[in-house]
Amino acid sequence: MNTELIQPRRRDLFAGFFSVGVTGFGGVLPQAHSMLVQRRRWLSESDFAEQLGLCQVLPGPNIVNMAVSVGARFHGAMGAMAAVSGLLLAPLVIVLLLASLYGHYRQLPLVEQVMHGLASAAAGLLLAMALRLLPRLERRGWCALVVIVTFAAIALFRLPLLWVLLATIPLALGLAWLSKGGRGE
Hints:
Layout: H1 10-23, H2 29-39, H3 45-57, H4 62-105, H5 109-133, H6 141-156, H7 161-179
Helix pairs in contact: 1-2, 1-4, 3-4, 6-7
């Protein structure tokens, strides 16, 4: 097996990360690994692990950081721009097309029903996540109080999320501090 690494051109960076952007949905690091290490052989396994470690400590999505890092490694700022542009082009076009279609057809009953269904699915996913996290919640009355107040403010009173968080986060922190006897342990 030939293990010699290949030096990509800028257009190769664009095309390689474009393929990741087109085929990836959600966690795309496995596709990026396959493209970078196995198919295109731009990085070795250890190079990929090193790049990924760097990308994980930087702010932002790991895959975007990976595109910047790999692109810059081979062609500086222009390589980083080529890789990120390739990665983001297809999702950007898809989102713009969907937004345009939605803007044009949003009044149709079928589109309204689909959007209600998607909203219900999203709410169900959030509820499932909350139920999964519930057993890890400390068994203290004040924890339940914060959950109930937050839920009521958003779901029942329809208060803006930002304002609710700005109020409940300090409340939760203060109650946690007081529950520790004000010692900050």
